[in-house]
Specification:
With 315 residues, the chain is an alpha/beta fold. It has 11 helices and 5 strands, in the order E-H-E-H-E-H-E-H-E-H-H-H-H-H-H-H. Helix 2 crosses helix 10, helix 3 runs parallel beside helix 4 and helix 7 packs across helix 10.
């Protein structure tokens, strides 16, 4: 069977066609990325379009490497957590809702009996990435190891590659000049200039840089104030199609490597979680954990006080 015949569009299949697929040699690839404002120069579908392209390109690479697998492209979920606040265009949900949606949708695929589901969480905000990782952990506890969301590990490895000088000269130079570029700046603008230049407004060349500290980005209100009137975080004017071409190629190569490791169950453990996973306050259930710990501490303190009062009364 030709490579292109093993890449299928889920919405075009009938249920008997789905049922006929090999449960152990079929991979389902699903994108979860929000519609979100991307400055004055990029469309709100930037995250969605970029990662859908990565999804399809990754499937093409994998079809060549794994000739006994079929690849099913699922319709995207156009929602996300932790979008840039204060602008129209966001399809944003809470982290808890996002985790629940991913869990229920992907569990549905697992209930069909399929063993290989890769979630492309295409919005690199930490809470969004963690919600997808948590959802896969929940699913894997229910069904065995059937799902993975490697995008948190993607961020980790891209940051390491940048610090190690692992990118080409062009990306290395612009990264050194503009280290804090996280939303609709030179990187995303370059990616879109490579894939959909028709959707990039020429105003990107004249937009001023917007700088946010880590502390700013952890505060929705400070983020809103600093990007007011623009919507980007970074330096869009540094963007070029050549930078985007290299970044898109690097991204697909990494995603194909991670997905292949999972499909073959060889060295895939390192892709389950990224750096943000270790930051407990970013976890979906942290407020509940904190509240529980507070109640436990209050209960312990109350018991201690009561015990002390009883002893004094006896004395």
């Amino acid at each position: 069977m030709a490579n292109e015949e093993r890449i299928l569009d889920l919405k075009e299949l009938s249920w008997p066609q789905i049922d006929a697929l090999d449960r152990n040699r079929t991979a389902f690839l699903i994108v979860v990325a929000p519609l979100e404002e991307h400055g004055l120069h990029l469309p709100i579908g930037t995250d969605l379009m970029l990662v859908e392209w990565w999804q399809q390109a990754t499937a093409q690479v994998l079809a060549k490497r794994l000739p006994d697998f079929s690849f099913v492209l699922c319709p995207s979920l156009p929602i996300g957590a932790s979008c840039i606040p204060g602008f129209p265009g966001n399809f944003e949900v809470s982290q808890h809702t996002l985790r629940a949606v991913i869990t229920e949708v992907v569990s549905g695929i697992a209930l069909w009996g399929y063993k290989n589901i890769v979630v492309f969480a295409g919005h690199l905000a930490p809470r969004h990435l963690i919600a997808a990782e948590e959802a896969c952990d929940i699913i894997n506890r229910r069904f065995g190891e059937v799902a993975i969301s490697p995008m948190g590990a993607f961020v980790r490895d891209m940051l390491r590659r940048r610090s190690d000088g692992g990118f080409g000269d062009a990306i290395r130079r612009v990264t050194e000049r503009v280290p804090d570029d996280v939303h609709a700046g030179w990187m995303e603008t370059s990616l879109m200039l490579d894939l959909r230049p028709d959707l990039v407004n020429d105003s990107y060349r004249d937009l001023p840089p917007t700088h946010l500290t880590t502390g700013d980005m952890l505060s929705a209100e400070r983020t809103k104030q600093k990007v007011a009137g623009f919507g980007h975080i970074g330096t869009p004017s540094e963007a070029t199609a050549e930078l985007g071409r290299e970044a898109n190629r690097n991204s697909v190569e990494w995603l194909a490597q991670a997905a292949e490791a999972f499909l073959l169950r060889k060295g895939h453990e390192r892709y389950r979680h990224g750096t943000f996973w270790r930051v407990l306050p970013l976890r979906t259930d942290f407020p509940r954990w904190a509240a529980g710990a507070g109640l436990a501490a209050l209960g312990a303190a109350t018991l201690g006080i009561n015990s002390l009062l009883r002893r004094r009364k006896k004395e």
